[in-house]
Amino acid sequence: MNRLSFANLSTLPASIQSPEARSAGGVGIVHFGPGAFHRAHQAAYVDDLLTHDPRWGIAAVSMRTRGTIDALAEQDGLYTLAIRDADPSMRVIGAHRRFLGPEDAAETHSLLADPAVALVTTTVTEKGYCLGGDGTLDMGHPDIVHDLAGTTVPRSVVGWIVAGLAARRAAGTVPFVPMPCDNLASNGAKLHAALVAFATRTDPSLADWIAGEVRIPSTMVDSITPASDAALYGDIASTLGVEDRAAVQRESFTQWVIEDIGCQLGPDLASVGAAVTTDVGGYEKAKLRILNGAHSTLAYAGLLRGSSSVVDAMRDPELAAFVDAMIVRDIIPMLPPVHGLDIQDYRAAVLQRFRNPVIVHRLDQIAQDGSQKLPYRLGDTLIANRRAGRMPTHVVAAFGAWTAFLIRRSRSGQPIVDPAGNRLAILAFEGSPAEIVARLTDEGLGIPREVLEDAALMAALGRAANDAHNEDWTSLFAG
Question: What is the pTM of this model?
Fold first, then answer.
């Protein structure tokens, strides 16, 4: 079977959207980290933009391996995006025009220096920014140590961006806009500080220039993107009649929130659906508390009730109704208004995503690392309600389900996947549920320590943990 390419686009079914008739254009965006999420998310926005503005083709840069970029190059940069939902669809994306690996450093340097490149985006995971626990650049990170030594081939994305900005400054051209697209809170501010810190070690005047002249928007991105697998490749081959080894898949929902930094990014991403706002933090808080808070609640209560995936849990009418009530009664009232975000529409979209029958999101995966996630996903809502004089009974019940989950895992000998897993297992191994709640809170594991000062809340958490442990769902879900 032939590989997907421009030569055979005309043979694809008429229902498949493709860039067949698109005019050629240049490279205006350099992207570091062309993994599945980038190709399923940002590249789809850019692909839409290229239909009427061909200047913004993407140069895909992989800093470690060649697998993805070689697969793209073999297919003229084309690949299939499959939407996995109750109403599935496929389209061919043609947003990438250059494919650069670790051996192509000279070409990458040249592109970063090119004034036609206005935007440099990154999806390198949180670890890829080489930040320490306090969110600042880790000067002892091996990649940063390597790059500060003066090599011409950086290993870190921070080293690459600073090298590109140095070339722009030396040439007297305007800097490109760096834009991180990993879900790291205040990612723009953190990347900006990291660039300045790195440059300070090599060229203090460059650091001053970056501090004063380079603007970096914070962003929030969202779309569930399962890994590509044999089933996906087979489905595409049977539907399109060609082989595609660079295909990706995601849910239909997609969100890209970009901070308005008061100047043009280059490409008009707002024209293709990105939300440009002065309140990225408001969007982040809504996502963290509504989507992630509900996800964790479904995980712990769902596992206790015998579900294995999010869609399974949402087929449990009592649990689904409970989670919706938690969002409506406990979470939304504590969220400030966010310009451009209809909170009720967002709530409905989240619940609809949870009911997607095609995306299988396992509860045991979501349940991992609860001691680190719950303070932000549910703890902040808990505290906000109490400061407002309210008892958030549904969030209290969610913490009760987490406590019962720990008890069940600990006493059955099942591992608790969490950085504090061993300690959680010890704390939950014996004693009453209320006593375990007190231990967890005293150590600040999952439940914020300031709750200890609130006797009424501590009593409510203890009752909820007891109800969940005894599987008294009527009492627990009644709130």
Answer: 0.91
